[in-house]
Amino acid sequence: MEIMNFSLLALFSSAESLFVIQKWEPLYHLLNVSCFLLFFKAKSYISTSSSPVYLVDFSCLKPPNFLRVPFSTFIEHVKMLDFWDSESVDFMAKILTHSGQGEQTYFPPALHYIPPKAGHQEAIQEVHMVLFPVLEDLLIKTSISPSDIDILIVNCSGFCPAPSLSSIIINKYCMREDIKSYNISGMGCSASVLAIDMAKNILKTHKNSNAVILSTEILSTGWYPGKDRAKIVLNCMFRTGAAAILVTNKKEAKRTAKYQLLWSLRTLRAFDEKAYYSAFREEDSNGFTGVTLRRELLQVAGETLRSIISLLGLKVLPFTEVIWYVVSIIKKKFMNKSTEIYVPNFKSVIQHFCLPSSGKPIIREIGKGLKLTERDMEPALMTLHRFGNQSSSSVWYFPSALSKSLMCVRECTYSFI
User: Fold this and answer.
1) Distance (Å, whole) CA 392 – CA 408
2) 289 phi and psi angles, rounded to 5 deg
3) Which residues are within 8 A (CB) of 201 and not within 5 positions of it... i.e. 6 or more apart?
4) Distance, CA of 117 to CA of 122 (rounded, Å)
5) Among 2-6, 55-59, 268-272, which stretch is predicted with the lowest mean pLDDT?
6) Residue 385: inside a domain, yes or no?
7) Closest by CA position to 343, among listed 312, 315, 374, 364
8) On the chain, which terminus has fewer CB atoms closer than 10 Å, C or N?
9) Is residue 143 part of a domain?
10) Quick one: angle between helices 360-369 and 374-387, nearest 10?
11) Of 348, 335, 265, 273, nearest to 307 (Cα)?
12) Which helix (H) or strand (E) element contains residue 375?
């Protein structure tokens, strides 16, 4: 489908270029642009109205207060560990100070020990601690039972036990034997939104069904005890969190659902070496395993965002914004290569942007690419300040907080990046 969209965009650009070169009448330009826009608007309408998918409700984990890890506690603990020198401790203190997170973020119990307990059993206990409460809260909110769940998707990037995380959930709540269960691993901060797209596609072939998505990151086994600074960063940034989301294609959910899923788009950059190695799990020279975050990560985030703007814009933007964008591409390619490509005004159709709270630089890079104001980015920055980087589940903490302050608003449009 995306290949077809790109092909049609290329066909339109070629036709428009031919009209410019041949100096045809303006009427031909108008007809070409009109046909192009009408086709995409009609296709978007058909795709969203044929099989609506509703996000009924979601729940976010609020860890207990005794798991809070203020900066002073973190620094005091790492100073007591004999495998870090003063330079490494000073580096971590600097990362915390500039991270954008506050003093009330949370660590799992295993990381409060000195030294941290990074074993398998501690990780399983953390799974129970974060996933069971958040799922039970969702079931209470939506008044459904575990037996009503037809599809279960669990995402956790770095911890993949056997039995799987979905099997742990199914066994705990005695779910049906015909439930469709899936595990997503290694997908990082994008996994939760990716799971929404996955649930949408599964629901196309499973009518009248409920799908529950559980999103978390298990930190107990992710602690890095080495001295490689590119890997130490994750010790300072990641914090405990989890989210549970119920999506369905049942028609009766239209009355009670919080949101309707209009479109979902995915961009894959694994084919690019720079993107592939920007966040890479590997061993250091001493055999300690950690995730290396390279400096190219910000650039990769910007390039990924730019690659999806054209597709997203064709689906949601008004005609005028699309025309300005297409004209700027043609002008840059055939007339003046120094011309900057026009960045559409997405705020004309989107009220709130749910940016991933992966770090202050990431948030600002995405905001720059979409020409967002400080006010637009503030909710993501405040979510980062309050809860830290909770990986894939962090994107749900922003709408959770915002919905409490918008109780009087009946309709609004979110964009999950």
Assistant:
1) 28
2) -90, 135
3) none
4) 7
5) 2-6
6) no
7) 312
8) N
9) yes
10) 160
11) 265
12) helix 374-387
Residue 333 lies in a domain: no
**Residue pair 123/161 in contact by the 8 Å Cβ criterion:** yes
For residue 117, the one-letter residue type is K
Q: What is the pLDDT of residues 75-114, one digit of tens each?
A: 999 999 888 889 999 999 999 988 889 999 999 999 999 9
Residue 273 CB partners (closer than 8 Å, separation 6+): none
Phi/psi of residue 47, nearest 5 degrees: -70, -30
The closest alpha carbon to 235, from 248, 226, 244, belongs to 226
Which residue type sits at 278? Answer: S
Q: Enumerate residues 6+ apart whose C-beta is below 8 A from 402.
A: 352, 379
Whole-angstrom Cα distance, residue 165 to residue 409?
37
Give the distance between the most distant pair of CA atoms in the chain.
77
Beta bridge partners of 360: none
- For residue 390, count other CB atoms closer than 10 A to its CB: 32
User: What tokens appear for 411 in the block?
Assistant: 């309709």
Q: Is residue 162 part of a domain?
A: yes
Kindly report whether the global pTM for this prediction surpasses the value 0.85.
no
Structural domain including 181 reads 55-261
Looking at the structure of the chain, the number of domains it has is 1
How far, in Å, CA of 47 to CA of 261, rounded? 11
Q: What angle do CA 101, 299, 215 make, to 5 degrees?
A: 50
The number of C-alpha atoms within 13 Å of 310 and in the hemisphere containing its C-beta is 20
Contacts of 315 (CB under 8 A, 6+ apart): 40, 44, 263, 265
Exposure string for 370-382, b = 16+ CB within 10 A, e = fewer: bebeeebbebbbb
How far is residue 300's CA from residue 269's CA, in Å, rounded to a whole number?
8
Rounded to an integer, what distance in angstroms lies between the CA atom of residue 396 and that of residue 374?
20
φ, ψ of residue 286 to 5 degrees: the values are -100, 5
Q: Summarize the chain as % helix, strand, coil (round to 5).
A: 55, 15, 35
Distance CA(393)–CA(236), nearest Å, equals 17
Q: Pairing state of beta strands 289-293 and 279-283?
A: antiparallel
185-232 pLDDT, tens per residue? 988 888 998 999 999 999 999 999 999 999 999 999 989 999 899 999
Q: Identify each DSSP E strand in 61-128 by its residue range.
A: none
CATH value at residue 116:
3.40.47.10
Q: Which two tokens stand for residue 34?
A: 């009109």
Given a contact cutoff of 8 angstroms between Cβ atoms, the answer to whether 213 and 36 are in contact is no
Closest CA to 305 of 399, 204, 190, 198: 190
